[in-house]
Amino acid sequence: MEALESTPEVRARMSRQKSKDTKIEVALRKTLHASGLRFRVHGRPVKGVRREADIVFGPARVAVFVDGCFWHGCPEHATWPRRNAEFWRAKIEGNRARDRDTDARLAEAGWLAVRVWEHEPPAESAVRVAEVVARRRAERAARSAARTAARAAVVRTAVCDARTAAGEGPSAAGDAPAAAGGVPAEDGGSPAG
Asked: Least C-beta-crowded within 10 Å: which of 86, 95, 127, 133?
């Protein structure tokens, strides 16, 4: 590989670029935490997928990525360097392709990827993330309630089938009153008929 044309200033500036705990990422985390949300930081949402999210909401299955405008080719603020243009275009386009692949892999595993651009105000991004997390939690709770109701229906059916097989009817099991008016005949009620 041929050496890239660069200057000491550019090398120094690039060496100071952080990949974790950037100002916008920390500001977003502080805002989310202040709103009562709890999360993991810099985690891999899906085992076997070597992609790390900046903020991970495990039970809700939401992975938040804070993308830099330069590094991920922001449609509003992306700049294309003139020096080593081919290298940088390939690098940024490769980052974009990896982002799309990450989102697809997470979706296959039941996760939702949320992308936040570094130019977005942290308060606005936090509101968007909180809404997504709340929606995913509500969907999860609804699925859990539906599973619980389905299990209860199966148990009721099994109990009814077992009673029928044993020759027990509803009145023999004490589920319905034997006499009209809801009072059993031996308790002073008159039998129907």
From this structure: 86
Amino acid (one-letter) located at 23? K
Show the CA angle centred on residue 30, arms to residues 61 and 19, nearest 5°. Answer: 75
Beta-strand pair 53-57/62-67 = antiparallel
Q: Per the structure block, which two tokens stand in for 180?
A: 């009209």
CA-angle at 82, arms to 80 and 86, nearest 5°:
75
Cβ(49)–Cβ(109) below 8 Å: yes
Span 94-152, pLDDT tens digits: 999 999 999 999 999 999 999 999 999 999 999 999 999 999 999 999 988 988 988 88
pTM exceeding 0.85: no
